[in-house]
Amino acid sequence: MSGTNSERELIAEGPAIILVEPQLGENIGMVARAMANFGLAELRLVNPRDGWPSEKARSAASKADHVIDGTKVYETLEDAIRDLNFVYATTARERYGFKPVRAPVGATKTLREKFKAGEKTGILFGRERWGLSNEEVALADEIVTFPVNPAFASLNIAQAVLLMSYEWMKSGMEDLDETAFQPVEQRPSTKEQVFGLFDHIEEALDARGYFHPPEKKPKMVDNLRAVFSRRGFTEQEISVVRGVIRSLDRFPRRRPHAVPEKAEDLGAGENSGNGSDE
Amino acid sequence: MSGTNSERELIAEGPAIILVEPQLGENIGMVARAMANFGLAELRLVNPRDGWPSEKARSAASKADHVIDGTKVYETLEDAIRDLNFVYATTARERYGFKPVRAPVGATKTLREKFKAGEKTGILFGRERWGLSNEEVALADEIVTFPVNPAFASLNIAQAVLLMSYEWMKSGMEDLDETAFQPVEQRPSTKEQVFGLFDHIEEALDARGYFHPPEKKPKMVDNLRAVFSRRGFTEQEISVVRGVIRSLDRFPRRRPHAVPEKAEDLGAGENSGNGSDE
Q1: tRNA/rRNA methyltransferase SpoU type domain: which residues (chains A, B) (predicted)?
Q2: Distance from chain centroid for Cα A21
């Protein structure tokens, strides 16, 4: 999915992502891409199997060049975390020990607090095949593990980095339901507008003898009004619905496949999947 | 990362994942794997470019065979969602329209409520290159979009499915900090145990003339006690620390690289990264 706006500010802050002995360049590249998606930029590699730099990594990073270019390589995990204040180890395997174990939400909350306090933090990710050794986990302050399906728990390294990066971005958002864009702003309709719609529909139907027999008209009107008020229309939607009725009411049916006369009338079709049975 | 326990119940419920004209079998396989990780099982494909079944998909699914085997193929998107009650469209591009736009947390909350009410739901994902058309988005009830870095917003399809599947699993959890395993259960120490530690340390140091000059001893003791009470030790940790002091106190220094005599004493080393500066 696209949607990148290169004129918008590049977010690049937060915990370092530390990959311990990653094997495949593709995976390193996909990690860089996942980091860039959620505003992380500092990638550290401990002994990458196939060396560094890696063309495969750059290609898989899909233009997350700022992450690839800034990647640092270390010989030992100790060297890679020496300057950090607080480190998480990710693991899917149960570890017996004293270290606190967090889910991603709690861990990124902690990381965000430490970030705000000016601490340098990192998250360790193990090898593709067997993760981190107990000795490597022991170097971390706390453990983070993912709430996966117990019967199918194997996450690949780029996916694990993606989830932590995503939770990192969310930890900085005040409103978890914040989105990059919103629908066209709409005002709820007033009752007067709803009554206008009722009148319009009922007049058009009445002109066609719809309310038959006449003694049933009050009940039929009640039912119609129930249908058209249940939806909670906005002003714009009322306008679209009235456009539909106006068109049906005023214009005769043409030959098959004729193009509707007024662009306004197309709106209701696009929206009908949304409103038809709610 | 491994950690799969094949004896545990396979979770397989929740919204259908619908891929519209997916191009690469590898991507379909990675989608299946991401779904299985978080307990989703129903995969639907609309016109997969390279046909179905796909050996590349099965291979990339890393044993999520139950998802691959149950995958259904449809000729049109309408056919693929005909039996569903409520459908989300995922998109990274801004869409101008009336449909509500949600972030993953809000969207999966809605999906979970509908699931509990017995409704059938689905989530649409577009083509690798350009996502969903406006006409396809129009078939959905609501839109879901990801809180990505605006300057680097391109998520691949398997990553987008992963995030929605992950949020789906979280939407069913009462405690968002729930994890698959927990550290060894520990009781906070009592004050008596802390005082025992103080006495032990102070006696061992006193026996070596540590508190010098004598008039400074009260202040030195205060400082020591501050250091050893700040950590909030648990019972087990107190026991490990006392093992360390006992060893230092009782046993003479050996030749370099000698092996510690008692296994108990090793515990403190593993834990020291955690407790040293908190």
Answers
A1: 16-166
A2: 30
